[in-house]
Design brief:
Elements (H helix, E strand, L loop, with lengths): L1 H23 L5 H32 L1 H27 L11 H28 L3 H5 L11 H6 L3 H11 L7 H19 L4 H19 L5 H20 L27 H15 L6 H10 L9 H9 L13 H8 L11 H9 L3 H21 L4 H16 L2 H26 L8 E3 L9 E3 L2
Antiparallel strand pairs: 1-2
Helix pairs in contact: 1-2, 1-3, 2-3, 2-11, 2-17, 3-11, 3-16, 4-7, 4-8, 4-18, 7-8, 7-9, 7-17, 8-9, 9-10, 9-17, 11-14, 11-15, 12-13, 12-18, 15-16, 16-17, 17-18
Length: 455
């Protein structure tokens, strides 16, 4: 039964990818970049675990009956996301909305502003820990600031990059523009590579690729998209496998294969998710949205203004958890049910985290998330002003699929809202001026095409 459910998930995911690729030929359709992450978590990861050490894997998951129950829930959640994307993307977009010459200059200025803010926040964090060598001269290094807003602002390059690319929609990208994009993304790239972190690395690569593809619509063949996805996935696994050896001045060999990360039983996302599902099913202690609400309500207020914010909010909503550790997931109580404790900093991924947050309503919540991504994708194809925000959401998909709802929600609010607000303000200014019909340039990775006028 368990292997049949694994095959069911693999078949459904493969069908969804091929169907949406044949229909849309869009590498940043939500199905194309979300569903492969599901296949890694809920097909490849358990198969590798079973092939490597079946007894250890099965015993940690609670043996075959519990494994089958969890895989059934994972199959339902995967289908909920796929159907949600399809439902959200079914809506026909409005008339095409582009940007004019004046808008392009204003968007460029806003992009430079966000790039400078991000770079300054990154430098402040490095100075706080004693300089570049102190920050990245140790494994899993990086800068630090007591303010969470300053720490997260170091990633503002994720906003700057798509705005910069969008501002060059009419004239095309030149060397100096690519240099500016590189500088804007430098904090993310350094934090991702030297800090050996998957999130910043994925944000930088995916954010840049989505910005270019959504703006210029190049024709990307399936084999190129498939190869790029494999390379990015392998890079992320390799960074984690060699995390202890990656830092300035390191003389350790960087020879750990990417597969080593998959053998980390205490940090395995699949096993963590299955442990959460077992805990919730046995105790009935789902949060039904209150954990995320409490986390967001407390996190948006700086600690300097409200030092006891997490304790106060938890007391108000009646939750007995610690939001400052493991995103509020009660790992100690879960260990009393499963007999296994997860590693510090491990993330459960979509199935476990949504099941803990919403219980039996988790498939509906996942469906809503898929519908959001589908609707944003469809709207961004018609409205150029939404493309930077959608590029940001595409990059952030790694957080709700492989980590937690809280990690995705906070970054979606911090990065997505400024991009949308800035472009809405510019659009409001434009509505009072008459703008000439712009020229779009269709770029191709396989053949050269001329410019065309938008309708």
């Amino acid at each position: 039964m368990y292997y049949a459910l694994l095959g069911l998930v693999a078949a459904i995911c493969t069908f969804a990818i091929l169907r949406d690729w044949r229909r849309w030929r869009d590498v940043f359709h939500p199905t194309i970049y979300c569903v492969p992450q599901l296949m890694f978590l809920y097909v490849a990861l358990p198969l590798y675990g079973l092939a490597t050490d079946e007894f250890e894997f099965v015993s940690r998951a609670g043996y075959w009956d519990e494994l089958a129950d969890f895989q059934f829930i994972a199959a339902v959640m995967c289908m909920a996301l796929i159907f949600g994307i399809r439902w959200g993307a079914r809506t026909v977009g409005g008339p095409p909305i582009s940007i004019g010459e004046q808008d392009a200059r204003a968007i460029f200025a806003v992009a430079i502003l966000f790039g400078i803010l991000g770079f300054v926040a990154w430098i402040v964090g490095i100075i706080n820990v004693g300089g570049f060598d102190a920050a990245y001269g140790r494994a899993y290094g990086g800068g630090w600031d007591d303010s969470g807003y300053v720490r997260e602002a170091a990633q503002f390059g994720l906003i700057a990059a798509p705005l910069l690319v969008l501002s060059r929609r009419k004239g095309g990208m030149r060397l100096q523009h690519w240099i500016l994009v590189f500088i804007a993304l430098l904090p993310l790239l350094v934090q991702g590579i030297l800090g050996a972190r998957r999130g910043p690395t994925f944000l930088a690569i995916t954010g840049l690729a989505a910005s270019y593809v959504l703006t210029f619509r190049p024709r990307i063949p399936f084999w190129l998209a498939f190869t790029a996805a494999l390379l990015v996935g392998s890079l992320l696994l390799w960074l984690v496998a060699n995390r202890d050896a990656i830092y300035l001045g390191s003389e350790k060999a960087l020879d750990s294969p990417a597969s080593r990360m998959l053998e980390n039983w205490s940090g395995n996302e699949y096993l963590f998710s299955s442990a959460i599902v077992r805990y919730v099913n046995e105790t009935g202690e789902a949060f039904y949205g209150m954990r995320v609400f409490a986390h967001m309500a407390a996190r948006v207020v700086p600690s300097a203004i409200w030092p006891t914010k997490y304790a106060d909010v938890l007391a108000a909503v009646g939750l007995d958890i610690d939001l400052t550790q493991d995103a509020g997931i009660p790992v100690d109580r879960i260990a009393t049910v499963t007999g296994c404790k997860v590693a510090v900093g491990a993330a459960p991924g979509m199935v476990g985290d949504f099941w803990m947050e919403f219980g039996m309503f988790a498939p509906l919540a996942v469906f809503a998330m898929g519908a959001l991504y589908g609707k944003l994708w469809r709207a961004s194809r018609a409205d150029a002003r939404l493309q930077p925000a959608y590029a940001i959401f595409a990059a952030l998909s790694i957080y709700f699929l492989t980590q937690t709802i809280e990690a995705w929600t906070f970054r979606a609010l911090l990065f997505g809202i400024p991009a949308v607000v800035a472009l809405r303000i510019l659009a409001h200014r434009r509505s009072h001026a008459r703008v000439a019909n712009p020229v779009w340039y269709a770029h191709s990775l396989t053949q050269r095409r001329g410019a065309r006028h938008c309708e």
